[in-house]
Specification:
Strands 5-4-3-2-1-9-8-7-6 form a nine-stranded parallel β-sheet. It has one domain: Aldolase class I (TIM Barrel), CATH 3.20.20. Helix 6 links the parallel strand 7 and strand 8. With 204 residues, it is of the alpha/beta class. The chain is built from eight helices and nine strands.
Length: 204
């Protein structure tokens, strides 16, 4: 089962990359981003993309410039996630044949992202938008738009977001922080997947 969950591994170091990815994939989280303000992110992305080819979609987060997109592509990444809506980054991502998830917060940013080819919209920070805000925007966005709540969405409120039409979630510190053990990350991932599956089933 492919779940609409994106693991955000901010601060991941290359020596953690493979064991952490292994436990996430085993738990059922198969879309993973390494933010570019992590230590040696391209090294981690390369190792993860090579080792888990065919099992997970690996890429970068906090992507702000088009040249960063090309660097991610060069090391085998296929996913680009940003905190903002930069049309150049979106267009470069799509020209490279990669998946684009720009950060948006308003209808203007949402439509700008979609017009430039975004595959999905990262509503960030979700805590400031709330399910009611997303519900209002979904009334005007094209039907079927993939919307991901990031920053303020988690196991305790997955159901509230799914109920109004959220397609998925990006999960950061609830899943991973530097210093967490692999066993801890595995436990967190399993609980997040269980909560997500339950919320999807309840709102199916």
């Amino acid at each position: 089962m492919s779940r609409n969950l994106i693991a955000i591994l901010r601060g991941l170091s290359p020596d953690e990359a493979l064991p952490v990815t292994d436990c996430l994939v085993a738990a059922g989280i198969t879309r993973i981003e390494v933010p570019l303000n992590s230590p040696e992110p391209y090294k981690s992305i390369e190792a993860m993309a090579k080792t888990f080819a065919g099992q997970a979609q690996i890429g970068a987060g906090t992507v702000l410039e088009p040249d960063q997109v090309s660097k991610v592509k060069a090391v085998g990444g296929t996913l680009i996630v940003s905190p903002d809506c930069n049309p150049e980054v979106i267009r470069t991502t799509k020209a490279e044949g990669m998946s684009s998830f720009p950060g948006v917060m308003t209808p203007t940013e949402s439509f700008t992202a979609l017009r430039n080819g975004a595959d999905g919209l990262k509503f960030f920070p979700a805590s400031l938008i709330g399910p009611d805000g997303l519900k209002a925007m979904l009334a005007v966005l094209p039907k079927g738009t993939a919307t991901y709540a990031v920053g303020g969405a988690g196991p305790e409120n997955f159901g509230d977001w799914i109920k109004v039409g959220a397609a998925g979630f990006g999960i950061g510190t609830a899943l991973y922080k530097p210093g967490f053990s692999v066993a801890d990350i595995k436990d967190r991932a399993e609980k997040i997947v269980t909560a997500y599956d339950a919320a999807v089933a309840a709102n199916g």
